[in-house]
Description:
The longest helix is centred in the first third of the chain and has 19 residues, at 2-20. The chain is built from three helices and no strands. The protein has one domain. It has helices at 2-20, 26-39, 45-60. The two termini are 27 Å apart. The protein is 77% helix and 0% strand. The radius of gyration is 14 Å and the shape is flat.
Amino acid sequence: MALSLSVVLMLGIILVVLMRQKALKAGPAIVAILFGFFLASTGMAPSINRFLNSIANTINHITF
């Protein structure tokens, strides 16, 4: 849950920044939000969630 909340927050911040810099207009932003909303209710959602979790685990195991 913490990971998905972090991703949602990060993507929301990126979306706001893009809209404020006029790099993304309101119409395409709404389409992007609706696409994400409807994609979350499809059968692909668990696969996307597993993919994002594996990326987060990979990043977590990187040591410098």
